[in-house]
Amino acid sequence: MKKFITTIQNIWKIKELRERIAWTVGMLFIFRIGSFIVLPGVEPAALDKAGQASAANDLLGLINTFTGGAFQNASIMALGIMPYITASIIVQLLGFAMPYFQRLQQKEGESGRKKLNQITRLLTVAITLVQGGGYLTYINSIPGAIDPSMPKSIFWLSSTIILSAGTVFAMWLGEKITDKGLGNGASLLIMIGIISRLPAAFASEIAIQINTGGLFMLILEFALLFVIIMATVLIIQGVRRVPIQFAKHMVQRGSSVMPAAGVRDYIPIKVNAAGVMPIIFAQALMFVPATVAQFAGGGANSAPTGFMRQLIDPYSLFSEMFVFLLVVGFTYVYTALLVNPTQYAEYLKRQNAFIPGIKPGKPTADFIDAVTTRITLPGSIFLGIIAILPGLARAFGVNPAFAAFFGGTSLLIGVAVILDTLQQVESHLLMRRYDGLVKSGRLQGRSKLQSIGSNM
Fold first, then answer.
1. 197-251+260-456 fold
2. Rounded to two decimals, what is the model's pTM?
């Protein structure tokens, strides 16, 4: 406890860090206020009734989780930061497929980064207009959700402009947090939306277990959640260090010139290079059968049967196994897009460096590809397990709202963002000769582990 108080005092002593924390908290507070301001002409009571009747595990439920309930509230920030995230992913994928975007990402430096940011912003507006139209169609399909005294043309026009402005404002908040605050702004906005639902889920689970006399079960749940979080931290931070050595160079010592030993370093290849994206892709793909069954099954009164029923039931054994296999497969695909062994080999060759015992060029690329393939296997299996843990927790009687934090995107995003933010706090402390956040060692943040990869 004394160590914790000392760390808080050290953080408060650093003016820049104190201002960054205050700025971040202020921007997040503004974002949360926006999630409760309802669009003009919308009846919140009808939306709440429709939200209680709908399935909590469908696509709308996932979006509502990321926006912290703003989606179901029909707020001015109902779409949140998600269109910006979608645009960023599209631009990133274009960087792997189109030479123009590759050149902007790798060769044009700061000017290329500014062009990519501008393209991302424009694409965000376009995506917001499309998603906003779909969202307004969804609201219009709910009986009593729109005030009948308000003309539909005015409602559609005003709501489209407001939703677009809300998303652009959320994007601006995220960029300002990144520039003047602490951590990645877009990630923090998503995380604060997810975490905002944790206290209610936490209190609900405690009340349920106490009322049913399941105190031992409650303690067991918290213990398992702690273990799962610790395992997630290990996987997120885990890297395979491929040693490299720079060639010897000549230095002058007095009147003679002598060879100096080459510097040793390493290439950090992450165990979970794909991050949360495989789970998002797998969940999005699993929404397709449910949509097909809804439109092709003969209406709401015609329930699907047989194979389709097992597939669209998120808690069936078949559906869980299918999601597990999808996550494993998407992990390999997304890792192959992110980790380019040929680029690593070319970078080492340009820097006059090599992997001990491996020839430069294609052998180096093949070696890095083999290492990446091997370490991706345990990472993909862990991601697959994380993806199905909420369903397993619910099968064992955990409250669905609380079970969502046992795995899936909620757990991975929360842990990753918190670790990245804490690493930045520790960097500020260490730069001013204070102790770090941990008693021994250092938080292994992204900025340290990917120093070599970011230079390519």
1. Preprotein translocase SecY subunit (1.10.3370)
2. 0.76
